[in-house]
Design a protein that fits this description.
The protein is an alpha/beta fold and about 350 residues long. The chain contains 13 helices and ten strands.
């Protein structure tokens, strides 16, 4: 079987030969470390480690589509040895440390209320009219993604919390849920409609294996909205967006949220989500075995392997993978480290992980 056949067989609970060996990328510092430790800069890390072709490879701009449109021009406000202060294209002024990879500090936002939304939306529409969503060589690019290809094609197809949160910050979107829920729902609906009008051509013309919805709407103790607010403000628009993709032949819908997602899973499933990712272990205690017992085969999963064991030696890695072995062999689940690989993992440690994975799942 090739990796695409393998993925679809697993997600459809059909017979498969082995698990795909995948991961979810690495920090920038990890990338730099691995280069220093000998990985040639022109070689993909998945290839160096003997993994299957990266499932993210074409998702973040690899199709040539402008998947991200924002209403502002980027502007550097201050740049020194300590930090970079910039107004980003989403209208947010961010201060980024140059001492290491970390979440930037938000200094100011443009989108705050109904008055600013009116201008924000107009700027957004003006930018859409001024860019080519589809590349000039779209027809030629499509030939690479024919139905008989041997790799998985994932498609970045939505963000109904993640985009507005980025525009307003967690505090801003959290307050708007209560201060002006009608406005927030208007923003959510606008974003959903944007994805449908923008990507209808691509979804019709490509044979997508799964659509990836990016949210990151949970923290280490629970979600950043209540289940009641998710149902009230987001659920109708998730249903509309996911129905759009289903109508155009997309079989699987993956939702990506870090953190403790337990309270939101049943509502996402009601909306039509059938793959949960990345199911963080760590302090979040995400447990793929528990989810299977709770939701049965209706919920597929990617992730669920504690990335923090990778630098802890063979026994720790083997115990972690054996914890999910039975579930992985039953279908509907692909074990993947539960987020980007941190910089305390060496090339050799990552290679050891891959070797042990093959020993258990090949």
């Amino acid at each position: 079987m090739n990796v695409r056949e393998r993925f679809n067989a697993i997600m459809d609970y059909e017979a498969f030969d082995r698990q795909p060996l995948w991961y979810f990328g690495q920090w920038h510092e990890t990338r730099d470390r691995w280069w220093q430790e000998g990985v040639p800069k022109g070689q993909p890390f998945w290839s160096h480690f003997g993994m299957d072709q990266d499932w993210e490879q074409y998702m973040w701009g690899g199709l040539g589509l402008r998947t991200r449109i924002d209403p502002f021009e980027h502007k550097v406000l201050e740049d020194n040895d300590e930090f970079l202060l910039e107004r980003c294209e989403d209208g947010v002024v961010r201060k980024s440390s140059k001492k290491g990879e970390c979440i930037p500090e938000v200094v100011d936002v443009f989108l705050k209320d109904r008055a600013s939304w009116s201008e924000f939306k107009q700027r957004f529409e003006d930018r859409i009219q001024g860019v080519d969503i589809y590349p000039a060589d779209w027809e030629a690019r499509k030939a690479k993604f024919h139905k008989n290809r041997d790799f998985v094609l994932s498609f970045m197809g939505g963000s109904l919390y993640g985009w507005p949160r980025g525009w307003m910050t967690v505090e801003g979107i959290s307050m708007m849920q209560y201060d002006d829920p009608a406005l927030l729902e208007e923003i959510i609906e606008y974003v959903a409609n944007h994805f449908m009008r923008t990507f209808e051509r691509a979804i019709k013309e490509l044979d997508i294996d799964f659509v990836y919805i990016f949210e990151d709407c949970c923290f280490n103790t629970g979600p950043l909205m209540s289940p009641a607010k998710l149902r009230e403000l987001w659920l109708p628009h998730y249903k509309k967006l996911i129905s759009f993709y289903r109508r155009h032949g997309v079989k699987h819908i993956l939702l990506d949220s870090d953190g403790k997602v337990d309270d939101l899973v049943p509502i996402w499933m009601e909306a039509g989500v059938d793959i949960l990712f990345p199911i963080e272990v760590g302090t979040w205690k995400g447990d793929v075995n528990k989810y299977r017992a709770q939701y049965g085969k209706d919920l597929r999963m990617l992730g669920g392997v504690d990335k923090l064991v990778i630098n802890q030696g063979e026994q720790a890695i083997r115990e972690e993978l054996m914890r999910v072995e039975k579930l992985a062999k039953s279908g509907g689940y692909i074990p993947i480290p539960d987020h980007r690989i941190p910089p305390d993992v060496s090339i050799q440690q990552m290679q050891n992980y891959c070797t042990i994975f093959k020993d258990i799942f090949y």
